[in-house]
Design brief:
By secondary structure, the chain is of the alpha/beta class. It is built from 11 helices and 18 strands. Strands 3, 5, 6, 9, 10, 17 and 18 form a 7-stranded mixed β-sheet that branches. It has a 6-stranded parallel β-sheet with strand order 13-12-11-14-15-16, sandwiched between helices.
Length: about 375
């Protein structure tokens, strides 16, 4: 099948919209027509580096789609089904899936190259080069072949535009607070970074019963939006959040701090650590531009005597096949905001502008509209 998609040919380059050939789905594989794709900051990281991966690569991992065809042995979906893509495939039977840790499923070992668990590279350029889709998805292409482990079937009545956000930003933020952070009723929570992931960490903390939810971001629009979905306080940076957390907690500091900034750094880590109170958890959801970029030093003495927990999280510890439908149902029942997360919509040839708007702090979530 011929299609069109946005491809990164090398680090530091801009996305180029090119014609692609999509292979036929093989055993365990699914051909989909993408409807929408979220402009996640992870795809912007891909412009700088792809640790363990390769170029060229089709961008996009947060998407919604309709199934066109399935390969031999596929049982999870059928032609005509509406699906949300999971950038972390979940096989359901490896050691990690079997112990409730599907966010680190063994089938996700090749997400950086885009090679499917079967070994397939699903796209071809006109010069014959084979390439994959970012996180085994490639949602910036109109059509793609995915593993059935990456296809989460949803009710066909659900709007595909808001459903696309459930592929990454919503469960990643939600789970960072609820699962990875373990927010409990009465907690004081700080969320550092109020973009597409951070505002959902705010929503998760609110629904978990946090007494105080402090959102920190330099962009006023994002602070205002976070307040509209439940943040009790908003400030411009983590240093200010640290003082406020001590005040609100009557001297102890935040119980949970979730870091969801666009670019992780040693400075961000140091400022976030100041917010953590005794017995508190620091949840690291943000990514750095490059694998070699560190997060500075950790004061081992304070970590020990104050019993701090440093928790990395991928997809917010969520299980795509249980949490995506659950969050969609919560939205349908009016308990979770999704519609207003979409700030602007873009055509495929407007992708670069979408990321410029994101960098300028003008969007909570940009959405690519296929077709």
């Amino acid at each position: 099948m011929r299609t069109t998609g946005a491809v990164l040919f090398e680090p530091g380059a801009e996305y180029r919209v090119v014609d692609l050939e999509v292979v036929d789905p093989g055993p365990g594989e699914v051909l989909v027509e993408m409807a929408y794709a979220g402009l996640c900051h992870s795809d912007e990281h891909l412009r700088h580096a792809n640790p363990g991966g390769q170029y060229p690569i089709v961008g996009g991992h947060e998407g919604s789609a309709v199934v066109l065809a399935v390969g031999p042995g596929v049982t999870r979906v059928a032609p005509g089904d509406h699906v949300v893509t999971s950038f972390l495939p979940a096989c359901g039977h490896c050691r990690y899936c079997a112990t409730g840790r599907s966010s680190i499923c063994d089938a996700g070992a090749t997400i950086a190259t885009g090679q499917l668990p079967t070994g397939t590279l699903p796209f071809r350029l006109d010069d014959g080069r084979e390439l994959g889709g970012f996180c085994m998805v490639g949602a910036f292409a109109r059509h793609a072949v995915l593993s059935e482990f990456s296809c989460v079937r949803i009710d066909p009545s659900a709007p595909l535009d808001v459903a696309a956000l459930l592929a990454c930003s919503v469960p990643t933020g939600w789970g960072s607070a609820v699962y990875a952070g373990g927010v409990r009723p009465g907690d004081t929570v700080v969320v550092v970074g109020l973009g597409g992931v951070g505002v959902n960490a705010v929503q998760g903390a609110v629904h978990a019963g946090a007494l105080h939810v402090i959102g920190a971001d330099p962009v006023e629009m994002k602070r205002t939006f976070a307040g509209s979905v439940g943040a009790t306080h908003t400030v411009a940076d983590a240093k200010e959040a640290a003082g406020l957390a001590r005040e609100l907690s009557r001297g102890t500091g935040a119980d949970v701090v979730v870091v969801t900034v666009g670019k992780m750094s040693a400075e961000v880590m140091a400022d976030a650590t100041r917010c953590v109170g005794k017995g508190g958890a620091l949840v690291l959801t943000a990514l750095a531009d490059r694998l070699a970029d560190g997060v500075g030093t950790l004061n081992g003495q304070l970590t020990t005597v104050f019993e701090h927990r440093i928790q990395g999280t991928l997809f917010g510890h969520c299980n795509p096949f249980t949490d995506i439908p659950r969050l969609l149902r919560m939205h349908e029942e009016g308990r979770l905001e999704l519609d207003r997360l979409i700030t602007r919509r873009y055509a495929l040839d407007e992708l670069t502008q979408g990321y410029r708007d994101q960098a300028a702090g003008e969007t909570v979530r940009g959405l690519l509209v296929h077709g």
